[in-house]
Design a protein that fits this description.
This protein is mostly helical. The protein contains 19 helices and no strands.
Length: 504
């Protein structure tokens, strides 16, 4: 039992550290990049990255299936199956990479042939480089999966953090020397190549049975496909929900509006990002408990994890809302703050809901409730699509933000259905009254203190970060002092942060 707790805390801690690390770079590098590129060009840069995210759907949910079966074969020490899986997976990811790379290549050609796109022909080298980047990243997927399947999140996190650091420093160097989109994606492709080589070397040492050559096994592929296809529909709905607004905005309002929308989004996505980094372990743990039939422990995991996630997410959300104008003004510019403050507030509320929905998705995935999860994701994606088409032309980027908020409201029903039909939890009305009342009282108090007092102490980015941290700490402290925390939650938090301090 102690070993399980230790591994769980270790994985959660490394997941948290690897999530926070790039945020530290983004805080200081993003303003320089936006200033050097300009609002219009930065919008194009965001658009290309959005296309990269959408092309990830080409894997049709197979990554989840491959991760599941690789972990299963490793646990069973079935070396023959590991070799067959890895060779087949390598072929799958290579084909996906070539398809995605070809799409970028076609896009680069179209910028020179279609009159409507000729204004973007100067970025054709960047598009080609983005295609190469996608190809290399797709091939590297097998090694990323291997780290997770081996339960070596610590090693995978360290490798990822090193190359992320190299990427960010390279982008900063290019921007400061006058280079922009073309050079950035070209250098990112080179870095991805070395990341691939090093990841392959490390994983093959840890798992010598892992094949790095191409092979094919139809039976294995069919097994992955049957498992992954439902996940694919869930993924496509989730990605559409997350990125559809960023695809629509440039066509309705132009690339500059995408910059005014995406930068507040970059801030608020940290809210669910933090909760997801802390709760990534819910998928394998809920899967294990479900498989063993330990329903009581499963209920306890659900109740305790979501109590803590709710409070942490609320603390971050209230802090972001309290300092909305100051975050954008001191991070990027007062001009951006005047245009996008309202967007930031709306997206903060949206991402608070997503901060609860992400871990719930991991939990449902572990229980094998893919159909319910997929239907829910599709419904939210459709609501987002309809809301965008209605609100975006009327209210611009504010309309896009409201459309996103409206689309995530069904997450409340997902909680109700899960607790009633999958976990048969009782006395949840009392829990929700206590939780909602506690967060309203504490959140209202912290907002008044932060928005009407602490923000007047802010005069630069560093004082903003200090006041933001103080606001978050104040939220947790008031919640604890008011007696809303359960004692077992306090003990868990102490143990978790002790683990983080040891790792750092």
């Amino acid at each position: 039992m102690d070993n399980i707790v230790h591994r769980t805390l270790s994985n959660a801690a490394w997941g948290f550290i690897s999530y926070v690390w790039p945020i530290c770079f983004a805080i200081f590098i993003t303003p320089i990049v936006v200033s050097a590129m300009g609002i219009h060009v930065y919008g194009i840069y965001v658009f290309i990255n959005t296309i990269l995210s959408f092309l990830g759907l080409l894997e049709f949910g197979l990554s989840t299936a491959i991760s599941k079966y690789l972990a299963q074969y490793i646990g069973a020490q079935d070396n023959d199956k590991i070799r067959i899986l890895s060779g087949t997976a390598m072929t799958i990811f290579t084909v996906i990479g070539l398809i995605g790379g070809s799409i970028f290549m076609i896009g680069a050609i179209l910028t020179h042939t279609l009159p409507v796109l000729q204004n973007y022909s100067q970025y054709s080298i960047g598009l080609i480089s983005a295609g190469i980047l996608f190809l290399l990243s797709a091939i590297n997927s097998l090694y990323s999966i291997a780290f997770t399947s081996l339960q070596r999140i610590d090693t995978g996190s360290k490798v990822g953090m090193v190359f992320m650091t190299v990427q960010q420093i390279s982008i900063l160097g290019l921007i400061l020397t006058g280079y922009t989109i073309n050079a950035i994606f070209f250098v990112l492709a080179i870095i991805a190549f070395f990341s691939l080589l090093i990841s392959r070397r490390i994983t093959t040492r840890m798992l010598p049975e892992l094949r790095v050559s191409l092979s094919w096994n139809l039976e294995e592929f069919q097994k992955y496909y049957k498992f992954g296809i439902i996940t694919f529909f869930n993924n496509i709905a989730t990605v559409s929900l997350t990125y559809l607004d960023r695809l629509f905005i440039p066509f309705f309002l132009g690339p500059s509006s995408l910059t005014y929308y995406s930068l507040p989004g970059n801030v608020t996505t940290r809210i669910p990002g933090i909760s997801n980094s802390l709760s990534a372990i819910l998928f394998p743990m809920s899967s294990s408990l479900s498989g063993s039939g330990d329903l009581e422990m499963l209920k306890r995991l659900y109740v305790r994890s979501f109590r803590l996630i709710t409070v942490v997410s609320a603390a971050v959300s209230v802090t972001v809302i309290s300092f909305a104008y100051d975050i954008l003004a001191f991070w990027i510019s007062p001009d951006l703050a005047r245009t996008s403050e309202y967007v930031l507030v709306i997206l903060a509320m949206t991402n608070f809901i997503l901060a609860l929905g992400g871990p719930l998705s991991n939990f449902l995935l572990g229980l094998g409730k893919l159909r319910f999860l997929t239907v829910s994701s599709i419904v939210m994606a459709l609501i987002n699509l309809v809301s965008l088409l209605i609100l975006l032309p009327i209210a611009g980027i504010n309309g896009a933000a409201w459309a996103y908020l409206v689309s995530v409201l069904p997450i409340a029903f997902m909680f109700f259905y899960t607790e009633k039909h999958y976990l048969a939890l009782s006395e949840r009305r009392r829990y929700y009254k206590r939780t909602i009342l506690g967060n309203i009282l504490v959140g209202g108090t912290v907002f008044i203190v932060a928005h009407y007092a602490l923000r007047y102490i802010i005069h630069d980015l560093f004082s903003l970060l200090a006041m933001g941290a103080l606001s978050g700490i104040l939220y947790i402290a008031l919640y604890w002092a008011s007696g809303f925390f359960e004692q077992e939650d306090v003990a868990s938090m102490k143990q978790f942060f002790k683990k983080i301090l040891k790792l750092t």
